[in-house]
Design brief:
This protein is mainly beta. It contains 2 helices and 18 strands.
């Protein structure tokens, strides 16, 4: 998009939506142009975001300008790629962990807040079979240093991204994907995920404003509890 000698190069990692465009972010002076990285989010939604690279030229000769900008734009885009994830993450991160038989089990996730919305309205948009990223920004990462048994499903020691899939009866399943570190959309194809386990739903004592994932100890293993708004689901596991 052009506006005089000011241009916007739209890019991002799994970008799906645009919201406000902040302006007070680092400015890079790479002659013959000035660059500014502008993250864009979807209003705090866990659905995605991206960045805009804005550059303002210092020459009025269009042909000469384009020739000179080649190398500078390449350098600026490299900066953009390195800074994209850090700039575009609009939600705080949360962690929880526990130790089983001397091995660590942990979860790291983005923490969106309701901000006047409801989980029924937000997650109600998912049709049966639809997948929620279970957080915001970079995908939620589940790490285990020991093999775990979720019922009759074994999750080997390793690192996974985890997601939630709505079922036909409006219950939920927890998906484990061997790919991790994804940012934004799209969500994985459930058929390509390593495993899925059912989640048990219960009624929370009170609504939870900010998404909270908790790993707590239980006899011979632990429980992963997911709370947001009026949603509370959990999966129990044991060490193998």
């Amino acid at each position: 998009m052009e506006c005089g000698t000011e241009r916007f190069v739209v890019g991002g990692i799994g970008m799906t939506a645009f919201g406000s465009r902040p302006t007070d972010f680092p400015i890079y002076h790479l002659l013959p142009a000035t660059y500014q990285l502008l993250p864009v989010t979807s209003g705090g939604s866990p659905l995605g975001g991206g960045i805009i690279l804005r550059y303002t030229t210092e020459s009025n000769n269009e042909e000469d300008e384009m020739k000179k900008l080649g190398v500078a734009v390449l350098g600026a885009m490299m900066v953009a790629c390195l800074a994209a994830v850090a700039l575009a993450q609009g939600n705080p991160r949360g962690t929880s962990s526990l130790t089983i038989k001397g091995k660590t089990v942990s979860v790291d996730y983005g923490r969106p807040s309701l901000k006047g919305r409801t989980t029924d309205a937000l997650l109600g948009r998912l049709k049966p079979g639809g997948v929620w990223r279970l957080g915001a920004d970079t995908s939620t990462t589940f790490k285990t240093g020991i093999d775990l048994a979720f019922g009759d499903v074994t999750i080997p020691a390793g690192e996974y991204s985890i997601w939630m899939q709505r079922q036909e009866d409006n219950s939920w399943k927890l998906l484990f994907d061997k790919k991790h570190g994804q940012w934004g959309e799209p969500t994985p194809n459930p058929a390509d995920c390593f495993a899925s386990v059912p989640l048990t739903e219960s009624k929370p004592a009170s609504p939870v404003e900010t998404l909270t994932l908790t790993l707590s100890k239980a006899s011979g293993g632990g429980t992963l509890t997911i709370q947001w708004g009026t949603l509370e689901v959990a999966a129990k596991f044991k060490a193998k």
